[in-house]
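Title: Prediction job returns without error message
Component: structure pipeline
Severity: low
Priority: P3
Assignee: unassigned

Description:
Job completed but the reporter wants confirmation the result is attached to the right record. Sequence as submitted:
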Amino acid sequence: MVPPVISIRNLSKVYAGGDEALRDVSLDIARGEIFALLGPNGAGKTTLISIVCGIVTPTRGTVVADGHDIVRDYRAARRKIGLVPQELHTDAFETVLATVRFSRGLFGRPPDDGFVETLLKDLSLWDRRASKMMELSGGMKRRVMIAKALSHEPDILFLDEPTAGVDVELRRDMWALVRRLRDSGVTIILTTHYIEEAQEMADRVGVISKGALILVEEKKALMRKLGKKQLTLNLAEPMLRVPPELADWHLALNADGQELLYVFDANEERTGIPSLLRRMSDLGIAFKDLHTRESSLEDIFVGLVSTRSGQ
């Protein structure tokens, strides 16, 4: 069996004021996968990433990155990891090219102008290589942060809300780059508020809430296991309320009474739709149109976190 590229065991973090940011988190991440970590603000996503990257010290637990303990063998572990943080921290007076070259040297990599040039071209930065950081837009600065994180050719890349507040073009470029990196064997762990991106990109999804990892699942299995479908019936005549004769289907009526909504498990052999339609016909309730919609990863995520929070 191939060992995981990242192995996290019983990781906890309690800050000085007593705030418990992480609670007993254990997680293995396979080499070459894209893992999406989802959770509301303050859930512990950034703390988890910061510990793995050696920025924050854990209170308890261990992290091994590509065979290197992040505390005992900090330098070797950190060399394996690239990080694109949420915050944009750069020297305002340095040029783009100098910033990326410096970052490569910081991790003990020998100069390689060919690699740096290719990297900057991949991120549409080559034409701005002589620009000072203070002259760049927020989106361009984000591109430079990505270039810095990749400058030392890491095997593991963390992207902490990488597309927050950036333009659509950068988002598209970034995800194309992520796919190329994954194809070249880089393991990618991302946190994102754009859940549709996680749905499109990730192999597995983890959900973190109040410092605890409440679910880790292959994306396809998660969608299959928790995904619901919604049937919408556009009524011929508006209703004031759902008739008691249809109570078995737990239907919802939209605000203006024009639509009946029925949520069902798409994996069930008996969905209840044929019997619902027959019952409606018996009651003389006509509809003009009907359509179904599958629940998205966002629906599942919101449902999980709400359930966990006891809402």
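Comment from assignee: result matches the submitted record. The chain has a mean pLDDT of 86.
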